[in-house]
Structure formats: structure tokens, C-alpha cells
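Dear support,

I submitted the protein below through the web form. The confirmation email said the job was done, but the results page showed an empty box. After a refresh the structure appeared. I'm attaching both so you can tell me whether what I see now is the final result or a partial one.
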Amino acid sequence: MNIHTLTRELNVPNDSKIVMLVADGLGGLPMQPGGLTELETAKTPNLDALATRGAQGRSIPVCPGISPGSGPGHLGLFGYDPMEYLIGRGALEATGIGFQLQDGDVAVRCNFCTLDGDGNIADRRAGRISSEDSFPLANRLNEIELSEGELFVQPVKEHRFVVVFRAAGLGGSLDDTDPQRTGVPPLAPTGDDPASQKTAKLAAEFIEKAQLVLADQPAANGLTMRGFAARPALPSFHDVYGLKAAAIAVYPMYKGLASLVGMDVVGDPKTLDEQVDLLTSLWNDYDFFFIHFKYTDSTGEDGDFDGKVGRIEQLDAVMPRIEGLSPDVLIVTGDHSTPAFLSAHSWHAVPTLLVSDCCRTDEHQAFGETQCRSGELGQFEAKYLMPLALANAKRMTKFGA
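What the results page shows now:
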């Protein structure tokens, strides 16, 4: 019996409300031995107040030592074992902008990048080009015609765009072309099996033609590809938990992931305040709310310790509005750690805070990595966070006689 079978069998419907606030890349590291992490440095009076009546712990997104991408990190939080359910970033990005993937389509998330005179990557994100500048470029790329099949190029946000290849017999098992570092050229697309090699051939043709289109651009004169994928088959969130769920996110990828597990993607918020406005307006319509906050991750990836501290403080400032709705269960966590010290996703356990009227509180008076190490929740696999949420919401009966 797997965990989803168990949650289906033990489900007890009620009118409780669960809020899961995911600060992307929340976990961090000190910049020097013995120092404080970003979360510990930030002034977070509201989160600290919640910690006095909640339980803390540390979640492992995939397994010890593995640094997860955002897809596996969020799947774990939603209770889907990321080792069992594999979703490529391309499928997340495409569904996140509302593109309807068909069986056999292969989607890939792309970045505009800056290439130097030798064809090496000088900036992996083209200086984080604005959406205003990048959208027309994506639309120009959408005019490219390939020797076989159909091509769809859709803008996403800033330096990101999506490419979907549609032809008979395509596979989605390809290596990324992004080498994840500067000073080297993009990698060539390569497939791991005959069907994926066919996709790689189309991808190489697209890249070659795209380079000609982008050649005159000062910053976005190249591109990289990450996360080739077809549409996955996932059991629905409502089916496995009995919850009507709403996803309140700004970035398309996280909308896409929520959509793939069957959540309703609601509204089109641009700011954290607008996300909380949506939460408030939809409070009576849903049982479960997933709120995604991106900027704790992007500042960590930029190596901006102070910037990440500031974003955590921004998150803390909206907590009274969320708490004022009186959720039965309030969870604050991250999908993975993104320490500014490493400027990358990492394998470190993620700080997690759970507040309910029946949680076993611990002695801690603040929310941070140090407190989480000895908190009541202990260290656990992220895929068990949803059963904990259901239990604290009194939505599960006992197992066995």
C-alpha cells in the first residue's frame, strides 16, 4: 500500500482550511563559519510569533545529499514521491502558461543567454532581460519552420520561454544544453534513445535557425534548453487527499506544476500582496491553498545574501494577513535550500514550520535552521508533509482496528 492509497482510505471530509506557503529556496547557510543563515539573520517577528505556537522541523526534498530542482522539490511537498513521479521542467513551464500539451509533444524550458565573440556563455540569463524585451524575441522565434513537424515558441517571463516540438515518434529523454556555468559554449542537444535522438535533431535545427534570428541582439543573442519532457500522468490532488485546492503563484512553472496535480490555478497575481488578496477573496471556495513566493530562491541563486534576507522579511510582513484568516493548518516551508553562499540549489534540509490547534509545540521562540534542528517535527521526507497537514486538519481517521 502506498501513501496515496492510505490517504484515500483514511480521508475524513470536513470544512478545515490548510495554507501551504512555499518560500522557494528558503533554506540557507552562513557566509562564514559560525555565522547566521539568511533566515536567521532576517528580522521575522511574525514568523517567530507563529513558532511559539507551532512545531518546527527539517524536510528532505528527495533524499539526503541530493540537490533537487524546483519540480521534484514541489512534488515532494505535495506528497508525490519525486523518485517515482518524474516531471521535466519543460512540461511544467508549458502547462504553466496554459499551453495544452498533446500526447507525443515534447516541451523544453529555454533561457535567452548572452554569448561572447567566441560563442561562449557570458551570462546564462541574458542580464535577466525584461519581459517587455524578451516577448518580441520569442514571437520572432515562433516564426521558424522546421524540416519536420510543428514548432511552438511561447514567451514565459523575463529571460524564459518555452519550445514545444510536435511530430510523430518524438521522445523526451534528452540532456540539457545549459552547461550551468559561463565561459563555455552551450552543449549540443543529445538524445538517450532513438525517439529522443529524433527530438535532438529537431532541437539542433531550431537552435541553428534561432541563432541567426538573435544574432543582432546585444544581450539575448543565444539560448539554452533545460528539462525536455512530455506530459506526465499524475493522480489528482483531490483524489488522493479529498481537498479542493487552489494554487496562487506568480511564475508560470509553479502554476504548471500545480495544474499537473489537479489544483485550480487562480488569478494572475504579480506581487505577494496581490497573492494574499486572492487568498482572502477565495477563502470560502477552497480547502487547500498553495502560495508560492519565488524571490527567496532567485536572490539565493544570485549569491545575494542581503537580498535574500530582505525577501524573507518581505514574506514575514504579510504573515498577519494570512494568520488573520484563521487557517486550521498553516505551513511555512521551502521546496529546497538555495544558500547565497553556494549561489545554487543545495541538498541541505529545509526549515519547516507547521501551526495548528493540535500540533505538539516545541520550546523554540524563533523560526530558523538552528531551531528546526531540534524541533518537534524532526527531520522527515517532504512527501510526508501532506499527511501531517491532513492529520493536523483532522481530515484522517485512524489506521487499522
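Response: this is the final, complete result; the empty box was a page-load delay. The chain has a mean pLDDT of 95.
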